[in-house]
């Protein structure tokens, strides 16, 4: 399947991280212009046809500035990948501080709210939105309960918005990875081999590149009839 995004503009949040970087490289390789953003803008690799800007998704003004700068440079947005996120620490909800709970909500859920509000009016008719949720957005995640709550919210927003944006013919879907080899896994402070489960039919974690290939296909013009859906890439964990 040939996917040609030449002349199309893709906005990605969290573009300095594991998934964001792989997605940026993959969309770029298929011809897209990129509007890349992260809290840590210096960690976004420079490339042609790409604008890199610092953006904190918890700040509505920062997100509005990102979208304004992106559209000024490349015109209306074709694809928005709302990927910025944090996991919080591995552990029981009883041990989680209120501060960490509020931070998780602010980044993973309120951050997505800010992004959607800024992006949708700036998108071309027929645009595509991909929200990065998690397997923890469609099933429980012991030791990551607060994270799971935020990602269930991401899925709820995705499903609901599919109908709200239909006049613009925007398709909106969520990607639900299970554990994927990125710096996020290190943030758990756990021996990552302990996170592996016998329910994973493929016997390994996913890679950022596998998630990026899925993101490309989900948002591609070829995938024209899917909206309001979750796409789970979990090595078969949820199949049993
Ligand atoms: N790695 C996994 O196992 C896994 C599994 C399921 C879902 N996810 C989701 O994938 C997405 C990307 O995660 P990743 O694995 O690449 O992690 P990562 O930590 O490598 O990247 C996340 C990026 O988000 C950025 N970020 C954090 N807070 C931000 C804020 N307030 N504003 C803007 N940017 C901010 C970070 O600076 C970082 O570059 C996240 O939404 C995460 O929840 C990851």
Automatic annotation (TrEMBL):
Keywords: NAD, Oxidoreductase. Gene3D superfamilies: NAD(P)-binding Rossmann-like Domain. It comes from the Bacteria. GO terms for molecular function: oxidoreductase activity. Transmembrane segments: none annotated. Pfam families: adh_short_C2. InterPro entries: KR_dom, NAD(P)-bd_dom_sf, Sc_DH/Rdtase_CS, SDR_fam. Residues 8-182 form the Ketoreductase domain. PROSITE patterns: ADH_SHORT (PS00061). Belongs to the short-chain dehydrogenases/reductases (SDR) family. This is SDR family oxidoreductase. It comes from Sagittula salina.
């Amino acid at each position: 399947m040939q996917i040609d995004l030449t002349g199309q503009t893709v906005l990605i949040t969290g573009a300095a991280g594991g998934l964001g970087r792989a997605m940026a490289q993959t969309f770029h390789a298929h011809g897209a212009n990129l509007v890349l953003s992260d809290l840590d803008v210096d960690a976004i690799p420079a490339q042609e046809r790409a604008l890199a800007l610092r953006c904190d998704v918890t700040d509505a003004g920062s997100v509005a500035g990102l979208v304004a700068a992106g559209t000024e440079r490349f015109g209306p947005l074709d694809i928005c990948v709302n990927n910025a996120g944090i996991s919080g620490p591995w552990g029981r909800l009883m041990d989680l501080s209120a501060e960490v709970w509020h931070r998780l909500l602010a980044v993973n859920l309120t951050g997505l709210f800010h992004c959607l509000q800024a992006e949708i009016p700036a998108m071309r008719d027929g645009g595509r939105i991909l929200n990065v949720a998690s397997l923890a957005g469609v099933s429980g995640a012991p030791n990551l309960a607060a994270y799971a709550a935020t990602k269930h919210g991401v899925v709820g927003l995705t499903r609901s918005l599919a109908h709200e944006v239909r006049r613009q013919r925007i398709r909106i879907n969520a990607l639900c990875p299970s554990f994927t080899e990125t710096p996020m896994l290190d943030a758990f402070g756990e021996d990552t081999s302990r996170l592996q489960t016998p329910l994973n039919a493929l016997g390994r974690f996913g890679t950022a590149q596998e998630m990026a290939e899925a993101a490309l296909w989900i948002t591609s013009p070829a995938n024209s009839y899917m909206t309001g859906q979750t796409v789970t890439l979990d090595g078969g964990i949820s199949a049993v």
